[in-house]
Amino acid sequence: MKKTLRLLLVFTLIISLCACGKEKEEKPEYIRPDIFEGYDETTLVLKSDGSILEIVIEDYNAAGIDYSDVKQYIEGQIDSANSASGTNTISLAGFTDEAGIVRVAIEYTDINSYNTFNGLDTVLTAYDMSVCDEIAEENAPTPEVSPAVEVEAIDWASLSDEELAEAGYTREDVESGALEQNIEGVASGTDAEPVVATFTDASSGAEIVSSDIDSKYMMFITDQKTAVKFDDGNVLYYTGNASRGRTDKEVICNGEGKTVIVFEFNYAY
């Protein structure tokens, strides 16, 4: 028993000496990533899991608005929305105030919570050509219609054979009832060609039509003035009221009408 005790004391002493001879390693301090890093304008970030990060940047100094209770107001709105739905689908992910430049980051678990919170009807779904064509038709300018011109009906039977020949007809045309009175240059409603959506190819800048796009892709539709970024995917095509962003993952929407962005997610398996 005494021998065992001595062995334990010697072992403990050896361990202590080894510990003293080795410098203690310091763990690096964890620095939480800045959620606003890389964003200098209002941006919607769409992720492959269906969640959305909304970055809102406002210059309250320039607008002359008191922003002292902005954070408290936003937190109250989020709490109310979550309480009303009985879920926690919305959260405040970040807030900074630097000399009146207020940055707010809000996370939504899905498009429905984003729409409900903001009172919008933004669409995030599989690509649908018919929906895009309907939007294009809604945005198409109304064609100018010339006023109707009353034209006196022609009594073809009273014309001589020579007069009919000058008009390119014969007496048989008159007797068969094949002639009709028409007004040239006025198209009927059935003459109008259907409106199809046109897109800009994000990689080449070429223009394509809605039927050229594969239905396997996704589409995002918004009428808001914002940048739209796809963290886990790439932009393929976009309609008018938009322009290419700084990378192939971003599109800038001008808010002057509905914009359709066609994209694909890069899923990690």
Helix-strand category: alpha+beta
Order of helices and strands: HEEHHEEHEHHHEEEEEEEE
What percentage of residues falls in helices of 4 or more residues? 25-40%
Strand residue content: 25-35%
Mean pLDDT: 82
Biggest sheet character: 7 strands, mixed
Q: Give the radius of gyration.
A: 35 Å
Number of helices: 7
Distance between the termini: 59 Å
Name the strands of the widest sheet in spatial order.
Answer: 3-4-2-1-9-12-11
Describe what you observe in this structure.
It is a single chain. The protein has 269 residues and is α+β, with helices and mostly antiparallel strands. It is 26% helix and 27% strand. It is built from seven helices and 13 strands. Strands 3-4-2-1-9-12-11 form a seven-stranded mixed β-sheet. A six-stranded antiparallel β-sheet has the order 5-8-13-10-6-7, with no helix packed on it. It starts with a helix and ends with a strand. Residues 1-13 and 181-187 have low confidence and may be disordered.
